[in-house]
From TrEMBL:
PANTHER family assigned to the protein according to its UniProt record, in alphabetical order: D-ISOMER SPECIFIC 2-HYDROXYACID DEHYDROGENASE FAMILY PROTEIN (AFU_ORTHOLOGUE AFUA_6G10090)
Entry-linked InterPro entries: D-2-hydroxyacid_DH, D-isomer_2_OHA_DH_cat_dom, D-isomer_DH_CS, D-isomer_DH_NAD-bd, NAD(P)-bd_dom_sf
Protein name, UniProt field: NAD(P)-dependent oxidoreductase
Keywords, comma-separated and alphabetical: NAD, Oxidoreductase
Annotated source species: Streptomyces bluensis
Every D-isomer specific 2-hydroxyacid dehydrogenase catalytic domain range: 40-301
Length: 302
């Protein structure tokens, strides 16, 4: 019988390729040896992809395809209905980047609180303009208490001595308490959160979950950080409350439109720090996402 064939449309961490090679022929879709999908479709057993599209037509052209292993999360680029119909397994790596995103949320929090964005702009006497605040002893509200939020709670609670409050209707209070967070309903959390960090998926129930009333419910001078999805936070409401001076600033790794246009009004606010969806862009997360996806393929074709 023929060896399994894994097609990889875009570069992933080298450790994943090394892991796959004893089990399968590895064919890149990129670089000098790159082959397009159509040249391997009659033999391909597995696809290890990042954000590339795998549509139903591709799956139907690949009679031996058994698994599509996604590096990272989010399946909007994969036709999961056709995969299900054809018996093709689709996997993701939901925990591989949690720690990296959590550390990034804390980085944004510090960047806003200590005026690092203002300092980097270098406009006028930035030293005189910057008045930071310590995180220690302040309250951090977490909206959503899944994988990433629990890592944030650990860093903020044990590392910075923050008081952590969490709101997540799907997580039992005992889980929050043992992870160092105090369970709270949304109004209570908002009224106390000097820092607010968002960690919910974007879904119908979470679109604009944090809008003008929620932002105005925060204590004066609060900071909001969003590393989840742009649509969870109403950006025009955010701009409004920052301009009014109700919020001290915000840190955004995600925005409703990505990449964020260079002339977007969010960029005009010195107290808003923006990173281009880089929460998971660390050596560790990239390696973990790739090797976990490779392991899913190996387990499946063994
Ligand atoms: P998770 O599934 O582990 O946790 C999400 C939590 O949100 C769940 O516990 C769920 O009960 C809760 N939740 C859902 N709806 C809610 C609501 N209306 N109110 C309160 N809580 C609600 O997810 P995760 O791995 O922690 O990821 C969280 C977010 O981070 C996702 O939006 C994900 O897309 C995003 N993310 C961003 C990056 C990045 O690069 N910035 C990387 C990975 C994930």
């Amino acid at each position: 019988t023929e060896r399994p064939l894994v097609w990889i449309p875009r570069p992933v961490h080298e450790d994943a390729l090394a892991r796959l090679r004893p089990h399968a022929d590895v064919r890149p879709g990129y670089g000098p040896e790159g082959v397009p999908f159509d040249e391997v479709s009659d033999r391909v057993t597995a696809i290890l992809l990042r954000t590339e599209r795998v549509d139903g037509a591709m799956m139907r052209r690949a009679p031996h395809l058994r698994i599509v292993a996604r590096h990272g999360v989010g399946l909007d680029t994969v036709d999961v209905d056709t995969a299900r119909e054809l018996g093709i397994t689709v996997t993701t790596t939901p925990t591989a980047n949690s720690r990296s995103v959590a550390e990034h949320a804390v980085a944004l929090l510090l960047a806003v609180r200590r005026g690092i964005g203002i300092a980097l702009r270098g406009e006028g006497d930035t030293r005189a303009a910057i008045r930071g605040r310590e995180l220690s002893g302040t309250a951090l509200g977490l909206i959503g208490f899944g994988r990433i939020a629990r890592e944030v709670a650990a860093i903020a609670g044990r590392g910075f001595g923050m008081r952590v409050l969490a709101y997540d209707p799907m997580v039992p209070a005992s889980v929050m308490t043992s992870a160092g967070a105090e369970p709270a309903d949304l109004p209570t959390l908002l009224s106390r959160a000097e820092h607010l960090s968002l960690h919910v998926p974007l879904a119908e129930g979470t679109r604009n979950l944090i809008g003008l009333p929620e932002l105005l419910a925060l204590p004066e001078g609060a900071v909001v950080v969003n590393t989840s999805r742009g649509g969870v936070l109403d950006e025009s409401a955010l701009l409004d409350v920052v301009r009014r001076g109700h919020l001290a600033g915000a840190g955004l790794d995600v925005t409703a439109v990505e990449p964020l246009p260079s002339d977007h009004p969010l960029r005009d606010e010195p107290s808003i720090v923006i990173t281009p969806h880089t929460g998971a862009q660390t050596a560790e997360a990239l390696r973990r996402m790739a090797t976990e996806a490779a392991d899913h393929i190996i387990a499946h074709i063994a």
